[in-house]
Amino acid sequence: MSEVKLSIDYDGYEEGIQMSSLIEELANGPEAAGLTSLIIGDWGGSYENDSSSIVEALVRLKDRFPSLQKLFIGDMDYEECEVSWITQSNLAPLLPAFPNLKSLTIKGSTDLELEPARHEQLEELVIICGGLGKDVLASIRGGAFPRLKKLELYIGVENYGFDGDLQDIMQVAEPGLFPELTYLGLKDSELQDEIAIAIANAPILDQLHTLDLSLGTLSDSGAQALLDSERIKKLQFLDLNHHYMSDGMMQKWKQSGMNVDISDQQDEDDYRYPSLTE
C-alpha cells in the first residue's frame, strides 16, 4: 500500500501555503497513480477554515488518483487543533469521485455534512468527534452503503455538537440497513447506558462480530442489560473500555466467559464524562 499524509504546520500556514496546492502538487507527481491511502492532516487554521476547498480539489483531481482506497480527512492531534474546533464541510462529493474507496475516516464534526451518503464499495466509515449532529446520523441512515462492514461513530456530548437523542442514534442500527455490517461502534457517548439498554437485544447483533460501546459513560445499569442479553453472548468481541462500572460489575464480566474489554475504569465524582469531547 502506498500512503501519503499532507499537513500544514503553523509556519507553513503563516507563509500562506494552501492544502489545495499540496493536493495539486501530489496529483502531478509520480506517486499519484499508485496512491492507495491519502491522509489529510491540519490544513492550516482548521478552526476557522473549513474543508470545502480540500473537497473541491480532490474531486477536481480525482482522475489522478485512480487507485485510492483509503481517505482520512482531519487527522490532527489536539496540539494542532482541538477535535471540537475542526471545521468540516459537506464531504459527500468525495464518495462518487472515488468509486474504489474502501475506507473513509473523518475527524471533526463542526459544519460536517454527508449528504447524499452513498457508495457502492465503501467497507469502513469512521467519524471521530466530540459531538455528532443528528443530521449526519440521518444522512447515514438514509444513505446507501451496501458493502459497509464497519461503522464507527463517536456520538459525543451536547456541548460539543451532539444535538440528537437516543432515537437518532439507534436509527443507524436498524436491521437490514447495512447487510454486510460486522462491526458497529456507537461510542464516546454521554448516553452510553441508554444505548447499551436499547441495543442489548437489537436484531442487528445477530450479524455482528464486534460491538463497540467504549469511551463513554457506561455504568452498571447499561452493563447489566448487556450481561442479561443472549444476543450479546454470541458476539466475538465486546468493547467497553473507558467506563464507570463498579468493581462488582467488572467481576461479573470477568466471570462471564465473554471476550470483553473492560479496561480503563473511571472514578465517578459528581459527573461522568466520555473520553473525547473537546
User: How many beta-strand segments?
Assistant: 10
Order of helices and strands: EHHEHEHEEHEHEHEHHEHE
Number of helices: 10
Quaternary:
single chain
In percent, how helical is the residue content?
Answer: 10-25%
Overall geometry comes to globular
* CATH architecture label name of the largest domain: Alpha-Beta Horseshoe
**Rg, Å, rounded:** 20 Å
Any idea of the CATH class of the largest domain? Alpha Beta
Identify low-pLDDT runs: none
Q: Mean of the pLDDT scores?
A: 96
CATH topology of the largest domain: Leucine-rich repeat, LRR (right-handed beta-alpha superhelix)
Counting helices, strands and paired strands, the structural category is: alpha/beta
Widest β-sheet, arrangement of strands: 1-2-3-4-5-6-7-8-9-10
| Major β-sheet profile | 10 strands, parallel
The CA-CA distance between the termini, in Å, is 33 Å
User: How many domains in all?
Assistant: 2
Proportion of strand residues: 15-25%
User: CATH H-level name of the largest domain... which superfamily?
Assistant: Ribonuclease Inhibitor
List the topology elements:
Blueprint: E1 3-6, H1 10-14, H2 19-27, E2 37-40, H3 52-60, E3 70-73, H4 94-97, E4 103-107, E5 124-128, H5 134-142, E6 150-156, H6 166-170, E7 183-189, H7 192-199, E8 210-212, H8 220-227, H9 230-233, E9 237-239, H10 247-254, E10 260-261
